[in-house]
Amino acid sequence: MSPVRPFLSSKLDGFGTTIFAEMSALAVATGAINLGQGFPDTDGPDVVLDTAIAQIRSGNNQYPPGRGEPGLRAAIAEHQQRFYGLTYDPDTEVLVTAGATEALAGALLGMLETGDEVIVFEPMYDSYQAGIALAGARAVPVLLRPVPGAGYGFHPEELNAAVTERTRMILLNTPHNPTGKVFTRDELQIIADVALAHDLWVVADEVYEHLVFAGHEHISIATLAGMADRTLVVSSGGKTFHTTGWKIGWACGPAEMVTATTTAKQFLTYVNGSPFQAAIAAGLGLPDQFFAGLAADLEAQRDLLEQGLRAAGFEVYRADGTYFTTVDIRPLRADGDGMAFCRELPGLIGVVAVPNQVFYMNPEHGRHLVRFACCKRPEVIAQAVERLRHLASGSR
Ligand code: PMP
Ligand code: GLN
Questions:
Q1: Residue ranges making up the domain that contains 338
Q2: Is residue 4 a part of any domain in this protein?
């Protein structure tokens, strides 16, 4: 007799294949330009690549220490000091993880009790909802609303109203995927005030920390008064060093938060990527100009993409950082069905994008929104923009 009960745990009801896997497979199948999944199409700095190769060749191919290579932990602590003035003890307050994804999962699984509530800003990166569900907790959304001609904002009263007796944590992402929003100091202070008033922990996902455009600044909420001892900062080397496939991430925070995260993390992967850990350490030590150049190059690509999207007729919401720009498709497609639009786009014009509705707990909020990635070579963006022009002429 074949099993009758569903194999998928009810904890993961509704979590099918991620949109990134679906859309990247569609890009490969159709040969379309992939502006969906956020990964760069160029390699990172030579020193990072060469260090990995040398490490593999010199025999650094076995398990690294549980909390990560000491050299990488020291480099992470130095990076936090150099860019944010934050001091972490590499032995007790820094943990190396399998990407930011595992740092987030480890924090949620290691720190939350069944029935706890986590405040999240929606739209949000798709692993948040799954991680919270796996931890047996409940995500409580606060909506980031698009402001035409500008970026995204939230209503502080909605944040306050989201707090209940079960709230334990605020999960924050800045610079923000998928909106490209960079939270301002005032906004972060509002969030910090709520955390301090209600004794909440903050998990701050800062994977796009170095991808911020002119006139904007990435501020870590851990730098705000009273916040360092209740904030776990999460980041990774994937975006900064164009090594998204290496999955070297980290978490920094008070020793007990890092230990709680480690306790869960050690049973997920235990450890990963020893030769790549040394390579990311080399990258973190690069001079300031490297980091500034990274943002400047990406900004030029963002400009190219945004101009193209505007010319194609979309309503474009300005991105102040990250790989991503969000558009409202309704000027081009009256039914505003972003999912159908993204499934058809590769066949129509050979471009892949991602429907923002997958980033919302209430998909209706993002039904008409679609995300395009600018982390591709300028000539690739130019070609995609050229193809998007056909949309305007053959308007549906
Ligand atoms: N957080 C955000 C906001 C992301 O966009 C991503 C994706 N790339 C991650 C976390 C995951 O990072 P990593 O690949 O290091 O696991
Ligand atoms: N963070 C990347 C994005 O938002 C992709 C991550 C993934 O494929 N899971 O596009």
A1: 10-44+289-393
A2: no
Residues 211 and 298: beta-carbon distance below 8 Å? yes
Largest CA distance in the chain: 64
Span from the CA of 193 to the centroid of ligand 1 (angstroms): 26
- Two structure tokens written together for 244: 């998204």
pLDDT, the chain, mean: 95
In ligand 1, the atom with minimum distance to the C-alpha of 244 is 14
222-241 pLDDT, tens digit each: 999 999 999 999 999 999 99
Give yes or no for a contact between 291 and 123, defined as CB atoms under 8 angstroms apart.
Answer: no
Instruction: Give yes or no for residue 18 CB within 6 A of ligand 2.
Output: yes
DSSP 212: B
**Amino acid identity, position 28:** V
How far is Cα 78 from Cα 89, in angstroms, rounded to an integer?
10
| Domain termination site, one of 231, 254, 287 | 287
129: CATH: 3.40.640.10
Testing ligand 1's pocket by substitution, the residue of 18, 179, 207 carrying the most ligand atoms inside 8 A of its CB is 207
Q: Kindly report the pTM of this predicted structure.
A: 0.96
Do 119 and 140 contact (CB within 8 A), yes or no?
Answer: yes
Cβ of 249 closer than 6 Å to ligand 1, yes or no, is yes
* Same domain as 33, residue 66: no
Domain for residue 199, yes or no?
A: yes
Judgement on whether residues 131 and 214 belong to the same structural domain of the protein: yes
Are 254 and 108 in a shared domain?
Answer: yes
Residue that is written with structure tokens 């930011």 in the block: 100
Residues 173 and 225 occupy one common structural domain? yes
From ligand 1's centre to the CA of 3, what distance in Å?
Answer: 36
CB-CB contact of 170 with 192 (8 Å): no
pLDDT digits (tens, 9 = 90+) for 121-139: 999 999 999 999 999 999 9
Q: Whose CA is nearest to atom 3 of ligand 2?
A: 38
